[in-house]
Specification:
This protein is α/β, with parallel strands linked by helices and 361 residues long. It folds into 2 domains: 192 residues, Alpha-Beta Complex (Quinone Oxidoreductase, Chain A, domain 1), CATH 3.90.180; 139 residues, NAD(P)-binding Rossmann-like Domain (Rossmann fold, 3-Layer(aba) Sandwich). Helices cover 27% and strands 27% of the residues. It contains 11 helices and 18 strands. It is globular and about 65 Å long. The protein starts with a strand and ends with a strand. Bound molecules: adenosine-5-diphosphoribose and zinc ion (2 copies). One zinc ion binds next to helix 2.
Amino acid sequence: MADEVRGVIAPGKNEPVRVETIVIPDPGPGEAVVRVLTCGVCHTDLHYKQGGITDEFPFLLGHEAAGTVESVGEGVTEVAPGDFVVLNWRAVCGRCRACLRGRPQYCFSTHNAGQRMTLTDGTELTPALGIGAFAEKTLVAAGQCTKVDPEVSPAAAGLLGCGVMAGIGASINTGGVGRGDSVAVIGCGGVGGAAVMGARLAGAARIIAVDIDPRKLETATRLGATHTVDASGTDPVEAIRELTGGFGADVVIEAVGRPETYRQAFYARDLAGTVVLVGVPTPEMRIELPLLDVFGRGGALKSSWYGDCLPSRDFPMLVDLFRQGRLDLDAFVTETVGLGDVEAAFDRMHAGDVLRSVVVL
Ligand code: APR
Ligand code: ZN
Ligand code: ZN
């Protein structure tokens, strides 16, 4: 039987979000209905509201979520009712060329439950990133659910579903940070802060946090940065070189998504160092580089999409580390709010006041 619950809708371009009654159909083959416990507020939700991702309004926002499986459709074996799960927005197919070559992070046939949730008048909702979890319940593809240890705070675990995973993965999966490496992270918001934490987890010896906001540098220190650079007054490239014996860092992670910070990342790496772009640029952004500088420095220029994560491999592992006290996911939860507070949470995010606001249902 279809169910009616409350959810946060973005009705039209730049219109304030509001709580509405939404209709959740029964799960079809391969689908699951999840009772959402928590869902973090991410920049991507704001981008949806601003019309920056698609114009398929209205959206059901929210995608950094943890919850309990309530019911599953035909043929679902991955999860069962009662399982505690973290949701992901890339359920890999297991059959495409990328999957078959052992690189499911680049799967090009990821699937989700599509547009089956509606308003009470039948208007179809587009779920943000195929999830839509600022709602008491949501309908997803079963492959979007990863079972993790339930003895964990859902607010923290849910953050693994997007930004925090992107940051940790930029360090440990994409950057391949290893024991003893020097790592610089440019931009230490939620994603960059998580990259700092990932670098510590991977055993980096020197972790240089760069930001223009002193509050973010303080948090980065708490998360494991050994040095900080306030880029509002100092040239970060010079500062990173000085802090690495004149060489530059082995791995530099760009977590802002702007041409000028990407350029800094490019020049702040050691010879044969790796640059990872995890900040999301906009389509019109360009940078120009002397080709000789690309040639002459060697190394690798990489991008990290969703932290190159494999949810079924990475979520349970990171939850284990969290439970053992080796990964401070709680540090990202600046505040917990209700479903009616998402608009205000967007304002605080925009002002840089929070790492993450988390909606608790
Ligand atoms: N130099 C250094 N840091 C900067 C600069 C700069 N020129 N400009 C902005 N920053 C810092 C901000 O002060 C902030 O701390 O970058 C950080 C960006 O963090 P958030 O706004 O919290 O964004 P976050 O959620 O971490 O996402 C970062 O990744 O997912 C994408 O769309 C997202 O592109 C964004 C990036
Ligand atoms: Zn695939
Ligand atoms: Zn997100």
